[in-house]
Structure formats: C-alpha cells, structure tokens
Amino acid sequence: MGGLPDVIDHEIMHWRSGAVYEIDPATLGQCTGFKDRKGKLVFEGDVVEYTRHGRKITAPITYSDDHACFFADVDGDVDKDCLYEIGYPKIIGNIHDTPELLQEGAP
Predict the structure, then answer these.
(1) Rounded Cα gap, residues 39 and 75, in angstroms
(2) 3-state percent helix, strand, coil for the chain, nearest multiple of 5
(3) Which candidate among 18, 28, 69, 87 keeps its CA 20 to 30 Å from the CA of 8?
(4) pLDDT in tens, 49-60
C-alpha cells in the first residue's frame, strides 16, 4: 500500500526504507484530514493556534463523538470550535511533546 507503514507491537517500519522506529502507542493521533496554514496535516493531539473574534486561541485538537467532528478544545465542555469552522490554524506543538503550551499564560 502506497506510503502506509506496517505497525508491529510498539514499532513502526517505513515501507520503502525499511527503517524501524519504536513508538509509544499512547502518543499516536488520528489524522483529521485537515491541513494547517502551511499545508501540514493536523492530527488529534496537535496544539493549534488561531484567531476567533480578534482573540488568539491556543487549544488541543480532539474528537467529539457527540458532534462527529474534530475540534479545538478551547475550554473543556464549555467551548469548542469544530476544525472545519476554524479554517487553517497554525500547529505549534502537541499534547505529548509540548504540554506546556496549554498552561495558563503560555506564549
């Protein structure tokens, strides 16, 4: 299959090069099918930045079973922006490698 890796236990092997990488399954996120402003695919768990009503928003991307969409989890259950409504956010990190981006007062 074109470009899809083989996943074996906690390792991933690139189909063309044969290179094997160890992965932590807890850090894998679903591809949303959306792209950021630079054309990079957005994944569940990415932390994005965008502007809404003149206010800069920083939020993680998660999936809502209730709304059947990926969204920016702005304020827990209170405030959510569906990814298709945001447009093209800027990916600034992810919840696994850069969790500090979600702390109060983070840049």
Answers:
(1) 26
(2) 10, 45, 45
(3) 69
(4) 999 888 899 999
- Residue in the structure block whose two tokens are 């992810």: 94
Domain range list for the chain: 29-102
Mind listing the pLDDT tens digit for each residue in 8-19?
Answer: 566 677 778 888
CATH 3.50.50.60 for domain 29-102: no
Mean pLDDT over 43-51 rounds to: 94
**Continuous segment of H or E residues that includes residue 84:** helix 83-86
Q: Are 85 and 94 in contact (CB under 8 A)?
A: no
* Nearest residue to 33 (alpha-carbon basis) of 21, 19, 22, 43: 43
DSSP string, 56-72: EEEEEEEEETTTTEEEE
Which 8-state DSSP code applies to residue 40? P
